[in-house]
Amino acid sequence: MTEEKLQEAVSRLKESGVRITPQRHAVLEFLLNAEIHPTADDIYKALEGKFPNMSVATVYNNLKVFREIGLVRELTYGDSSSRFDCNTSKHYHIICDECGKIVDFHYPSLDEVESLAEQVTGFQVSHHRMEIYGTCPNCKKELQHH
Ligand SMILES: [Zn+2]
Ligand SMILES: [Zn+2]
């Protein structure tokens, strides 16, 4: 499944004329396997052993390329660093208040909210974002033990 996704992503990069370097391939592979919505720093830390010449800036550049092609979405949360999501299908996120973990949450898109907002405010709605917050199963366990 992930292998298939990886091949698909690689061919999309090639079609867009993006050169596939080993680092770029590794960043892409990491993203597709990661369900944690990593930050650029997370990716850097995971791969620096394998690519001693890689810097956080390289990771950022790769992510920028992926974002421009539409392979990843950048999620921004206030001041904290962006997280990257390679699940580009419509979904919502649930976020742990304790550890900051973000998990995908599938629910039919709330399109009614968009049309309601349009009617009420006269805005032309482009998209909406919804986040649910709580304590993840791991942190819940941790908290119970203390
Ligand atoms: Zn947690
Ligand atoms: Zn997601």
Give the strand order of the largest sheet, numbering strands 1, 2, ... along the chain: 4-3-5
Which band does the percent of strand residues land in?
15-25%
Give the uncertain stretches in residue-range form. none
How many strands?
5
Note the gap between the termini: 39 Å
Q: Per CATH, which architecture of the largest domain?
A: Orthogonal Bundle
Radius of gyration: 18 Å
Q: What is the helix/strand order?
A: HHHHEEEEHEH
Helix-residue proportion: 40-55%
* CATH homologous superfamily grouping of the largest domain: Winged helix-like DNA-binding domain superfamily/Winged helix DNA-binding domain
Number of domains: 2
- CATH T-level topology of the largest domain: Arc Repressor Mutant, subunit A
Task: Describe the fold and architecture.
There is one protein chain. By secondary structure, the chain is an alpha+beta fold. It is globular and about 50 Å long. The chain folds into two domains: 2-85, Arc Repressor Mutant, subunit A; 92-145, Ferric-uptake regulator, C-terminal dimerisarion domain (Dna Ligase, domain 1), CATH 3.30.1490. β1 (73-77) and β2 (80-85) form a beta hairpin. The longest helix has 14 residues, at 2-15. The relative contact order is 0.11. The termini are far apart. It is built from six helices and five strands. The model has no long low-confidence stretch (mean pLDDT 91). The protein has helices spanning 2-15, 22-33, 40-47, 56-69, 111-121, 137-145, and strands spanning 73-77, 80-85, 92-96, 102-105, 131-134. A three-stranded mixed beta sheet has the order 4-3-5, with no helix packed on it. 47% of the residues lie in helices and 16% in strands. α2 (22-33) crosses α4 and α3 packs across α4 (56-69). It binds zinc ion (2 copies). Residues 96, 98-99, 101, 136, 138-139 line the site of one zinc ion (ZN). This is Peroxide-responsive transcriptional repressor PerR. It comes from Aquibacillus salsiterrae.
